[in-house]
Amino acid sequence: MSQITKEEIRQPENLVYKKTELLTDNPLSYCPGCGHGTAHRVVMEVIDEMGIQEQTIGIAPVGCSVLAYEFMNVDMQQAAHGRAPALATAVKRLMPEKFVFTYQGDGDLAAIGTAETIHACNRGENIVIIFINNGIYGMTGGQMAPTTLPGMKSSTSPYGRDVALMGNPLKITELIAQLPGTLYVTRQAVHTPAAVRRAKRAVRKAFENQKLNKGLSFVEIVSNCNSGWKMTPNQSNEWMVENMFPFYPLGDIKVND
Amino acid sequence: MTEEIIIAGFGGQGVLSMGKILAYSGVMQNKEVSWMPSYGPEMRGGTANVTVILSDERISSPIINAYDTAIVLNQQSLDKFEPLVKPGGLLIYDPNGISRHPARTDINIYSIEANDEAARVGLSKVFNMIVLGGFLKLKPIVDAEYVRKGLEKSLPSRHHGMIPENEKAIETGKELIKAKHLLN
Amino acid sequence: MRELKLMKGNEAFAEAAIRAGADGYFGYPITPQSEVMEYLMAEKPHERTGMVVLQAESEVAAINMVYGGASCGKRVLTSSSSPGISLKQEGISYIAGAELPCLILNVVRAGPGLGTIQPAQSDYFQATKGGGHGDYRMIVLAPSSVQEMADFASLGFDLAFKYRNPVMILSDGAIGQMMEKVELDEQITRLTEAEIIKNTPWATTGKTKDRERNIITSLDLDSAKMELHNIHLQEKYRQIEENETRFETIQCDDADYLIIAYGTSARISQKAVDLLRAQGIKVGLLRPITLFPFPSKPIAELANRVKGILTVEMSAGQMIEDVRLAVGCKVKAEHFGRMGGIIPSPTQVVEAMHQKIIGG
Questions:
Q1: Can you tell me the distance from the alpha carbon of C305 to that of C257, in angstroms, rounded to the nearest whole number?
Q2: Which residues does A233 contact at the CB level (< 8 Å), separation at least 6?
Q3: b/e per residue, C328-357, with b = 16+ CB within 10 A?
Q4: Is C344 in contact with C337 (CB distance < 8 Å)?
Q5: Distance, CA of C301 to CA of C282 (rounded, Å)
Q6: What is the pLDDT of residues A136-162, one digit of tens each?
Q7: Centroid of chain to Cα A87
Q8: Which domains does chain A have, with CATH numbers?
Q9: Exposed (0-12), middle (13-18) or buried (19+): which is C94, by Cβ within 10 Å?
Q10: C49 forms bridges with which residues in the sheet?
């Protein structure tokens, strides 16, 4: 087997993959090993492949992905904590021909923004919600999130989440799947190449759904937070598979056509 | 000309709509008007009142505490507004359900048995127009043709078939109104 | 001649908003302003002009819908009353920080807390000094008639877009609920997407090949940049003060005494001026129409000529602070007001003028 040099790799004929132009050249602000970068890539590749960059408006949340607009090369709005679905509702209703998505974490979507999430879903707004669930508040330093697992440690549950004291984790994705306004509700992950491919198919379906005007598409991506969980990236992915997936099982939850 | 009027009674008696028809009639006759309701959770059965001002000049305060005319349709409203009629002013009341009658001697007082009449002819909906007729007999501040236009503007078009009955009620009110106490 | 109608203040505002070419209204019911959304829903503006009207799940959601719509360069508005306006402060701060145009109507009721549904003017501080977090200002218009409720809808949109700034119409339960004669403007055609892109090139309308992506945000983690942004905002507010101060003077030319009042209190005070003049006392009225920017200069000039100033507010005395800043120590300035939803009567204003200013 012949060796290939660094110079040869860079030749156009040897190019096998490149970053979509819908991701900017700004260095990602996420911790190395975090799933956000991959999730960003999946969403932007779908928009690129669908050729809808000029018609797409994205809404960034508050949390680790507050700066999503630095990396996503589409017109973006930055919402107050939890309010992204309200912004998206107005954008889509005022410009129904556009593609509108929100990108939100679990604290943003499932705690402070619960009302906005549930009512946008229930009204059947023709938008896509991308929901990154890593079971923790990453940006503010690893506090307990609505999705933190029972017994899981965080900076505000340092001895583990005591359900009797702190309440149960919220399976908001199962909850919103009950609402008549949602068309497609799925739970994915981006920790392996196969998972990324499945997640991308789900995101594509969600954006394609916007053309149908039949309701909201909701893609949860269960992700890791190696910094907040105080693990190496590999450990955190293993921990996610062993602990998060049993509680938040992957796969489609609701598919209406 | 400026006429400052309070109309008060139970919710559901048509107090606010009587004021609105009077105000709209004024608008149609190119007068300045204001219509300031008491508002609140009482929809029916509680007390309701509205201050209506018609004037040939720009109206300053839509909220006042002395009235040229008080039209009162229940005991609470009589008790509350009788003292607020300007000396020399006018008080009109329906004696139905009234146990303590007005007692002031420095104002003109009229009664109108509109409730009984509306019940007699089976038209409780135009009760308020009978009262309005009584008022317009004493103070013809808007002409009949503009009252008709006011009715047209105030009533939803699906109720325009009721306009002749309303006009008839106004005429009835003009006949029913009776002097109780007159200044010399 | 413009179309003549008898309307409630709330209804006149709603109708005028449609006619001003509004693209979207987002609201939540609360007394005493619910007629705004009721009127809009009954009018089917989607059929008349294509305007979107949506009842949100909360005031918080409603103002954030306004934030999203304004980010797209649309003419969007919301309305509420005091407790609901408190909930909207988060969104207003973001809108001011991101420099977005929008219209917010506050039909003020008495507080604090749930208070009561009767009229008050106790949200003056909240409207003019901030309300939400951070150094920002709204342009605040104070209507004192149903006609101005209508007129300020289009004026408000014009100012909002001229300065890329939220505009609040600070009304009260009395102006919202009362009916007066109102002349309405002709319908303005809503802007097309091409016109929006031309007028507001910063709007998020979709990134085309010929420009960089548009970002609407109030965030900058770099403090040096954030300070520059704040300096820019303050410069804009000084410009607004320079250009947009509005007020009305009534019988001030020969006045020995001055009443300063806005909104419903100005109407009551106007009657008090007539009553005082009938007593042979020369009193004038200065009515601020913009509360931010506040008409400090004309008040300072009048303070050189009069013997005393009475402010009349349906509050514990909030605007009086701005009046005293304008007047300095030149002349006595006192407050008279009622609270808790009580509207002062013209005769009470007359008595207050005697007790606090003339005889005081």
A1: 9
A2: A32, A33, A34, A224, A226
A3: eeebbbbbbbbbebebbbbebbbebbeebb
A4: yes
A5: 17
A6: 999 999 999 999 999 999 999 999 999
A7: 17
A8: 28-255 (3.40.50.970)
A9: buried
A10: none
Contact status of B40 with chain C (Cβ, < 8 Å):
yes
Contact of B152 with chain C, judged by CB distance below 8 Å, is answered with no
pLDDT digits (tens, 9 = 90+) for B121-159: 888 889 999 999 999 999 999 999 999 999 999 998 999
B42 touches chain C (CB under 8 A): no
The structure's pTM equals 0.95
Which of C64, C76, C215 shows the shortest C-beta gap to A76?
Answer: C215
Phi, then psi, of A182 in degrees rounded to 5: -90, 140
- Give the Cα separation of B135 and B114 in Å (integer): 12
CB C357 within 8 A of CB C334: yes
Domains of chain C, start order:
3-194 (3.40.50.970), 247-358 (3.40.50.920)
**Which of A163, A169, A164 is CA-nearest to residue A147?**
A169
Apex B124 CA angle, B118 and B125, nearest 5: 125
Q: Give the tens place of pLDDT for each residue, B3-40.
A: 999 999 998 889 999 999 999 999 999 999 999 998 76
Q: Which domain holds residue B53?
A: 2-181
Closest chain C C-alpha to B59 CA, distance in angstroms: 8
For chain B, how many structural domains are there in total?
A: 1
CATH number at residue B105: 3.40.920.10
C195 touches chain A (CB under 8 A): no
Q: Which of C25, C26, C64 to mutate to test the interface with A (most CBs of A within 10 A)?
A: C64
In the predicted model, what is the mean pLDDT of chain A?
Answer: 96
Q: Please give the radius of gyration of chain C, using alpha carbons only, rounded to the nearest integer.
A: 21
Report CA-CA distances (Å) from A94 to A191, C160, C203. 37, 19, 13
